[in-house]
Amino acid sequence: MLAHSSDSLLSSYDFVLPEALIAQEPARVRDGSRLLVAPQRGGPWTDSRFDEIGTLLEPGDLLVVNDTRVLPARLTCRRRTGGGVRLLALQPDGAGWRCMVKPSARISEGEQVQIIRRGTDDRGPDITIGPRDASGARLVTCDHDLMTVMKEWGEMPLPPYIDRSDGPDIADDARYQTVFATHDGAVAAPTAGLHFTEAILGELEGRGVGHASVTLHVGAGTFAPVRVDALDGHAMHEERYAVPAVTARRVQDTLEAGSRVVCVGTTSARALESWHRAGRPTDGAMRRTCLFLRPGDPPQLPFGLLTNFHLPKSTLLVLVASLLGRERTLALYEHAVCERYRFFSYGDACLFL
Q1: Residue 175 confidence (pLDDT) above 60
Q2: 239: Cα within 13 Å, side-chain hemisphere
Q3: CA 274 – CA 276 distance, rounded (Å)
Q4: Beta bridge partners of 34
Q5: I need a labelling partner for 285 at 20 to 30 A (CA). Which of 1, 162, 232, 331 fits?
Q6: Which phi and psi (to 5°) does residue 273 adopt?
Q7: Cβ-proximal residues to 331 (8 Å cutoff; 6+ apart), any chain
Q8: DSSP secondary structure, 285-335, as one string
Q9: Which of 184, 78, 85, 183 is CA-nearest to residue 138?
Q10: Is the N-terminal amide bond of 103 cis, ω within 30° of 0?
């Protein structure tokens, strides 16, 4: 049996996270979160606030944001027998959509269920539950365009660690969406981008800090647990991404000028690094990536990272360690817990430069 270093074992990325630090609500204002700032190459970190980010960046720096738009991808349905069914639409597939269905095992192929609006008597169109794929998702079809159906009948797909017994509220519809959101396709928000406001972007532009967009449609796999301890054995979920030609040019120009590229979120980081490893194409085409950044396979493209605080033993925490190193990452997270930073989607942020 091969020996593994601590850096390559998932169990080495564990830490104690008090449940009280898991943010259930966003900050009162978008840019009101705290910000932990740490240099990538060692040295002390500092406690700051997100609305001070302009003082931490320099003229010529380029922020790369993810402009995916979160779909109202959760649908509540009812069987003919009266039983409830919950769907999470993942991605289009031919004439239908791949969906996670609960309870899937009880529903036979070809069964029709009716969409309803939670807490009301409103009834929507029927949908047909089709075959199951290798991942357990079901192919779902509808006589209506399902994207249109979701926008009328769906709910924002908040992560499972945000407790909303009655479903998302009106505030979630706005706050679980970034100000960059343009292209429909995500089932989870690129949460580092949730902190930005138009005013912050304007302030940054005034300081000479620009921003450019990539698109990575965040899939439900971002919440999937890693089921093996040896990280080399983990099969990363696949997601669709695109780097527009204008962004490709701006990233290359920024690096050639000796300025910094700062990825806003792990999704932007994975998209940009995937683009780099694909030869930096300039066609802007939609591609697929299952890139798993980790110690031993860190980014090859130099970039800083703005990100939220992540789950213990998660691929996102391991990605942070690919930039900072495992021991420094865990020490920083220990500091964040002691200082009671707020974690996960609606939580605080950290900036690694």
Answers
A1: yes
A2: 30
A3: 5
A4: 49
A5: 232
A6: -70, -35
A7: none
A8: --EEE----BTTB--SS--EEEEE---TT-HHHHHHHHHH-HHHHHHHHHH
A9: 85
A10: yes
User: Tokens for 153?
Assistant: 């009948």
CB distance 157 to 173 below 8 Å: no
- DSSP state at residue 144: S
Query: How would you list the strands of the sheet with 62-66, edge to edge?
Result: 46-49, 34-38, 349-352, 304-308, 261-264, 62-66, 210-217, 239-242, 287-289
**Cα-Cα-Cα-Cα dihedral sign, residues 344, 178, 295, 42:** negative
The full set of domains in the chain, from first to last, is: 6-70+173-352 (3.40.1780.10), 74-155 (2.40.10.240)
Pick from 39, 14, 20: nearest CA to 350: 39
Q: Measured at the alpha carbon of residue 35, what is the angle toward residues 29 and 38, in degrees to the nearest 5?
A: 165
Return the pLDDT at 3. 45
Q: Report the distance separating Cα 141 and Cα 135, nearest Å.
A: 18
CA 40 to chain centre: 22
Per residue in 36-58, pLDDT (tens digit) is 999 998 889 999 999 999 999 99
> How large is the greatest C-alpha to C-alpha distance in the chain, in angstroms?
65
* Tokens encoding 136: 């357990």
In the chain, the percentage of residues whose pLDDT exceeds 70 is 98
Q: Would you call 67 exposed, middle or buried from its count of C-beta atoms within 10 A (0-12, 13-18, 19+)? A: buried
Read off the DSSP letter of residue 8: G
Amino acid at the residue 308: N
Whole-number Å distance between alpha carbons of 345 and 191: 5
The answer to whether 178 and 65 are in contact (CB under 8 A) is yes
